[in-house]
Amino acid sequence: MSFVSFDHNPPEDIPDEDPMVEGIPPSVLQQMIKELPPGYRTVFNLYVLEQKSHREIASMLGITEKASASQFSRARARLAEKIREYRHSHEK
Asked: What is the pLDDT of residue 18?
Protein backbone atom coordinates (compact mmCIF):
# COMPACT_ATOMS: atom_id res chain seq x y z
CA MET A 1 0.00 0.00 0.00
CA SER A 2 1.12 3.49 -0.69
CA PHE A 3 -0.11 6.71 0.83
CA VAL A 4 -0.67 10.19 -0.34
CA SER A 5 1.72 12.61 1.27
CA PHE A 6 1.63 16.36 1.56
CA ASP A 7 4.92 18.12 1.81
CA HIS A 8 4.13 21.57 3.11
CA ASN A 9 0.57 22.07 4.26
CA PRO A 10 -1.78 19.62 5.94
CA PRO A 11 -5.27 19.30 4.54
CA GLU A 12 -7.56 22.20 5.25
CA ASP A 13 -10.62 20.00 5.48
CA ILE A 14 -9.56 17.59 8.18
CA PRO A 15 -12.70 16.44 9.93
CA ASP A 16 -13.79 19.09 12.37
CA GLU A 17 -15.21 16.91 15.11
CA ASP A 18 -13.96 17.50 18.63
CA PRO A 19 -11.24 18.19 19.25
CA MET A 20 -10.83 20.97 16.74
CA VAL A 21 -7.56 21.26 14.85
CA GLU A 22 -7.61 25.03 15.12
CA GLY A 23 -4.46 26.33 16.74
CA ILE A 24 -2.40 23.22 16.10
CA PRO A 25 0.72 23.97 14.06
CA PRO A 26 0.54 22.47 10.55
CA SER A 27 3.80 20.59 11.09
CA VAL A 28 2.39 18.93 14.22
CA LEU A 29 -0.82 17.98 12.44
CA GLN A 30 1.18 16.61 9.52
CA GLN A 31 3.25 14.48 11.90
CA MET A 32 0.10 13.15 13.58
CA ILE A 33 -1.19 12.02 10.20
CA LYS A 34 2.15 10.44 9.29
CA GLU A 35 2.03 8.45 12.54
CA LEU A 36 -1.29 6.81 11.69
CA PRO A 37 -1.09 3.10 10.85
CA PRO A 38 -0.56 2.66 7.08
CA GLY A 39 -4.12 1.50 6.30
CA TYR A 40 -5.69 4.32 8.27
CA ARG A 41 -3.35 6.88 6.74
CA THR A 42 -3.94 5.63 3.20
CA VAL A 43 -7.72 5.79 3.44
CA PHE A 44 -7.62 9.11 5.32
CA ASN A 45 -5.39 10.72 2.70
CA LEU A 46 -7.42 9.38 -0.21
CA TYR A 47 -10.70 10.48 1.33
CA VAL A 48 -9.64 13.89 2.67
CA LEU A 49 -6.87 15.02 0.34
CA GLU A 50 -7.84 13.31 -2.88
CA GLN A 51 -11.59 13.58 -2.17
CA LYS A 52 -12.19 10.00 -3.27
CA SER A 53 -15.41 8.26 -2.30
CA HIS A 54 -15.34 5.09 -0.23
CA ARG A 55 -16.43 3.24 -3.37
CA GLU A 56 -13.43 4.60 -5.28
CA ILE A 57 -11.06 3.87 -2.40
CA ALA A 58 -12.40 0.34 -2.07
CA SER A 59 -11.83 -0.27 -5.76
CA MET A 60 -8.32 1.20 -5.67
CA LEU A 61 -7.23 -0.78 -2.62
CA GLY A 62 -9.14 -4.01 -3.24
CA ILE A 63 -11.22 -3.69 -0.08
CA THR A 64 -14.91 -3.26 0.59
CA GLU A 65 -16.60 0.12 0.92
CA LYS A 66 -17.43 -0.82 4.50
CA ALA A 67 -13.74 -1.50 5.22
CA SER A 68 -12.81 1.87 3.71
CA ALA A 69 -15.38 3.68 5.84
CA SER A 70 -14.22 1.77 8.92
CA GLN A 71 -10.56 2.63 8.30
CA PHE A 72 -11.50 6.29 7.86
CA SER A 73 -13.55 6.30 11.05
CA ARG A 74 -10.69 4.73 12.98
CA ALA A 75 -8.22 7.22 11.50
CA ARG A 76 -10.43 10.11 12.62
CA ALA A 77 -10.74 8.65 16.10
CA ARG A 78 -6.97 8.15 16.35
CA LEU A 79 -6.33 11.72 15.18
CA ALA A 80 -8.87 13.07 17.67
CA GLU A 81 -7.05 11.19 20.43
CA LYS A 82 -3.68 12.57 19.32
CA ILE A 83 -5.12 16.09 19.18
CA ARG A 84 -6.57 15.79 22.69
CA GLU A 85 -3.19 14.56 23.96
CA TYR A 86 -1.41 17.44 22.22
CA ARG A 87 -3.80 20.01 23.67
CA HIS A 88 -3.49 18.49 27.15
CA SER A 89 0.32 18.54 27.02
CA HIS A 90 0.37 22.14 25.72
CA GLU A 91 -2.14 23.68 28.11
CA LYS A 92 -0.99 26.86 29.74
From this structure: 39
**Dihedral angle computed from the Cα positions of residues 81, 83, 86 and 87, in that order, rounded to the nearest 10 degrees:** -110
Q: pLDDT value at position 92?
A: 63
List, for residues 11-40, the tens digit of each pLDDT value: 544 444 434 678 889 999 999 999 999 999
Residue 85 structural domain: 26-89
Domain presence at residue 4: no
Residue 12 lies in a domain: no
Domain count of the chain?
Answer: 1
